[in-house]
Inverse folding.
């Protein structure tokens, strides 16, 4: 009798499955971060403001967030291979439309369509690997997928900056076209749906497909509102904005109604009942926090070196690249360890080492060099490498095989939403803490302070030496002192942010031991 693993092993060899689906997921995840550094170039090229250009990111995130949770239902209805292949081709076509967009409106629409087609790549890649490999070999195979979704955000800003600086922003999207066509040819020949999956799909089609229109509508409204709130909240000063407040209320009402509705459905578009599995529920929370820290810190470091150290976009990307390579090298090692060591211990090591690395970043100041920042990112990445595969290992313990698609969709959605929350939280925390530190520092910058008088006199003398008048020299000295206060306040705000991220990660350690211990030989995605 054939097994799911045997069924997932096509003629070209099972080991072609991992790089094929891994590269497809890599292409999609990369496109989220690679476009960030090109926004100013896009705005200038298409005669748009910086605020308007951010909708290029928002439109993608909104549509992607809608498709992710329902991708399991779509795969079960359409067929996993057929849906995965359609996503690759659709992503390639919409990437071409993005690269050829004549104006901002067209680009935003094309990016929205790109988010729809790309939304099925990550969860289906994970589900395909689960069926293609037996438990004892899933660790190494799943490392390919882990590299894709964790390495891509790290290398994205560097690659995007280099492409934009040396060519044009359009190539950020156009490069997906040849890669997507190659991957579609590979997927067509390498992937197969397991017999059990095919049988269940035929049974569903025979019984008749009933689309959950109400659930779909609630999902669209809730996720759209949530993503816009997260993406635009800081920009519009959060709840001081009526627009953000109304959207936040809409998101809460829509998503709560969606949860209640789906739990009452016999054939829900998103199967939330699988969160009743303790391991899967805790795994989803940990994956949310992994996305929170990974993308939040990926935003913090480039912002810090650009605003405080004067790095270019490309140099800022190079700061986080060593961490990406550290992840790439360690993932296969973790994949091998996960079948030999209690995955909960690996997760604990990852949480503690990442938390300590973030706390070590609180030593940063405005005079640190490139090597210090790059090594700090590398240390942080060492811990992150011990999280992705082990979390998936224990999350899927006890999960029925037929729930694999729904589980993959949910856990990928949680990581993506965690990333959006992490980015939003990081940018807000920096802005608020900078205001706080500036107000505290300004209290000490008064004419009655001896330190103030000494600093102003020294600065004034240096400007007088440059043939400025006494009045001009004083004004220049005061302006420079205020700039120094601003820089120190900004630096302290980043230090605070690293501290908060570090403490949050360390606080997650007790959650790990709420999960049941994986049995020997369990692979990263169980259930088979």
């Amino acid at each position: 009798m054939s097994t799911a693993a045997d069924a997932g092993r096509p003629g070209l060899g099972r080991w072609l499955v991992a790089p094929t689906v891994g590269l497809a997921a890599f292409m999609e995840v990369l496109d989220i971060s690679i476009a960030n550094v090109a926004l100013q170039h896009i705005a200038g090229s298409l005669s748009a403001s910086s605020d308007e250009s951010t909708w290029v990111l928002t439109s993608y995130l909104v549509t992607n967030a809608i498709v992710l949770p329902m991708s399991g239902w779509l795969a079960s209805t359409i067929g996993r291979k057929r849906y995965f292949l359609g996503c690759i081709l659709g992503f390639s076509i919409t990437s071409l439309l993005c690269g050829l967009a004549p104006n901002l409106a067209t680009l935003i629409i094309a990016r929205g369509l790109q988010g729809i087609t790309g939304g099925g790549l990550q969860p289906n890649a994970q589900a395909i690997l689960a069926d293609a490999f037996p438990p004892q070999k899933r660790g190494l195979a799943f490392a390919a997928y882990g590299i894709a979704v964790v390495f891509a955000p790290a290398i994205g800003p560097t690659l995007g900056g280099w492409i934009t600086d040396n060519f044009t922003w359009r190539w950020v999207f156009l490069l997906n076209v040849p890669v997507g066509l190659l991957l579609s040819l590979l997927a067509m020949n390498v992937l197969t749906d397991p017999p059990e999956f095919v049988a269940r799909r035929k049974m569903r089609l025979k019984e008749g497909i009933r689309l959950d229109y109400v659930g779909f509508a609630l999902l669209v409204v809730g996720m759209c509102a949530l993503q816009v709130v997260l993406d635009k909240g800081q920009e519009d000063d959060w709840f001081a904005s009526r627009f953000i407040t109304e959207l936040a209320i809409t998101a809460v009402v829509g998503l709560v109604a969606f949860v209640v509705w789906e739990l009452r459905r016999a054939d829900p578009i998103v199967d939330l009942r699988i969160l009743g599995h303790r391991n899967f529920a805790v795994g989803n929370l940990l994956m949310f926090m992994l996305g929170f820290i990974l993308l939040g810190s990926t935003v913090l470091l480039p912002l810090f070196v650009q605003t405080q150290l004067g790095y270019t976009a490309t140099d800022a990307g190079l700061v986080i690249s060593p961490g990406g390579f550290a992840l790439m090298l360690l993932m296969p090692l973790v994949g091998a360890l996960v079948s030999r060591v209690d995955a909960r211990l690996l997760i604990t090591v990852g949480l503690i080492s990442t938390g300590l690395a973030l706390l070590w970043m609180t030593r940063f100041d405005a005079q640190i060099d490139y090597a210090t920042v790059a090594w700090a990112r590398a240390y942080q990445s060492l811990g992150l490498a011990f999280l992705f595969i082990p979390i998936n290992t224990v999350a899927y313990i006890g999960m029925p095989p037929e729930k694999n698609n729904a589980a993959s969709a949910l856990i990928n959605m949680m990581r993506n939403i965690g990333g959006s929350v992490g980015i939003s939280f990081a940018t807000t925390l920096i802005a608020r803490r900078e205001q706080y530190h500036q107000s505290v520092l300004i209290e000490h910058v008064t004419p009655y302070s001896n330190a103030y008088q000494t600093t102003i006199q020294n600065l004034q003398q240096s400007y007088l030496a440059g043939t400025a008048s006494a009045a001009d020299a004083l004004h220049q000295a005061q302006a420079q002192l205020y700039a120094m206060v601003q820089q120190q306040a900004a630096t302290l705000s980043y230090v605070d942010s690293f501290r908060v991220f570090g403490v949050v990660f360390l606080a997650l350690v007790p959650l790990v031991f709420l999960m049941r211990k994986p049995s020997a030989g369990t692979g990263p995605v169980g259930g088979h």
